[in-house]
Fold this protein.
Amino acid sequence: MNYFKFDEKLEKYSTEAESKAKTSFERIDGITEYNQTKVLNCFIKNRVSEMHLGTSTGYGYGDVGRDTLDQVFADCMGAEDAIVRHSFASGTHTLTVALFGILRPSDKVLVLTGRPYDTIIGVFGFEGHTDGSLADFGVEYHQVDLLPDGTPDINAIRAELSWGNYKMAYIQRSRGYSLRPSLTIDKIEELCKTVKEVSPNTVIMVDNCYGEFVETREPTEVGADIIAGSLIKNAGGGIAPTGGYIAGKREYVEMCAGRMTAPGVGREVGASLGHNRELYMGLFAAPHVTGEALKTAVFASALLEILGYKVSPTVEEKRGDIIQSVILNTPEALIAFCRGMQSGAPVDSFVRPEPSDMPGYDDQVIMAAGAFTLGSSIELSADAPLRAPYAAWMQGGLNFHSAKTGVLLAVQSMINGGALKI
Ligand SMILES: *Cc1c(COP(=O)(O)O)cnc(C)c1O
């Protein structure tokens, strides 16, 4: 049992944290069981078979594995249709295909959830830039800021939509790397109802990154027309080696497919190159793995709160994504936390993370990640910009027991470095 050495007091706090998390764990288990049976049912209903796990090359015409996966995925999201491809290079690429698939020059987009995720800002773009962004193509960007408590401003959204003639309303489910709360499905449902009430022809798109299988319903089940996300987060179950998905109303998925490859060709081409099996397995594992990541987040929230840190979300708070932020107050604590977490990774445990400059960031950034898939954030990882209040955003954990060890090592490292006294 003593493979890792923890301070005795820390062991005691760890036990306390687990009992504090008990109710949340039970809730997570309930959601996992529901989603796992939902996914299993979709596999059975679509008669997934050995032949679907095969491969195709070249144009990939008639790849039944790929085409059936699209339908299985659509069913899992409660959507009419989906495209799931290893050839989406990232979540940002997938969201970009969806945005460019649906929007046309002089269309207006209204973002309902404040400033979007960093990489998406560049996709919307800025007027006058000739970089191929949506702005460069004449798509107009508008945004409704969040209220001071970090929730959507329904009244302002209603007012803006009532006169704005918007082609698209855009919602980001996850908090991303901000301190606002993630959106619950109930909140997304309320937003969708508001949009359809005031402006029935506006297409509702949801950035579903980090949100898949966190609750029992997906945005496409509560009024969203189109959603997109990454396969190296929740929906790939830690098994998909790369890729993304788009799901929603058939008419919009088809528009996205035309943009994904070429107009008129769409989803008919695209060799699966042997990835079908991993994408099926990943989807099958996704509800369980998302549950493990959620438990890891809840455990970290409980433990760090016991140790006196401000955490968001708190143990009992309802979650709409797998991200946990912990405010560590000093750069020393933050660096020690990331180094400790890295030391508990199954891959690259011996690497010592250093804060460094990153393109697109004003402050230095430190990251802990020792993953089987490069950049995978369904695997235990933490990132943090070196600026007050020295918050770390952590997420993932393929299985709770090893990820819990990672969290304990992060805390032990703060103790060892003198940044935390217990
Ligand atoms: C991860 C993420 C994205 C896409 O990021 P990639 O790093 O390109 O996969 C977009 N939006 C949100 C909210 C995300 O969490």
User: Anything to note?
Assistant: The first helix runs from residue 8 to 20. The domain at 53-283 is CATH 3.40.640.10 (Aspartate Aminotransferase; domain 2). The two ends are 23 Å apart (CA to CA). DSSP finds eleven helices and twelve strands in the chain.
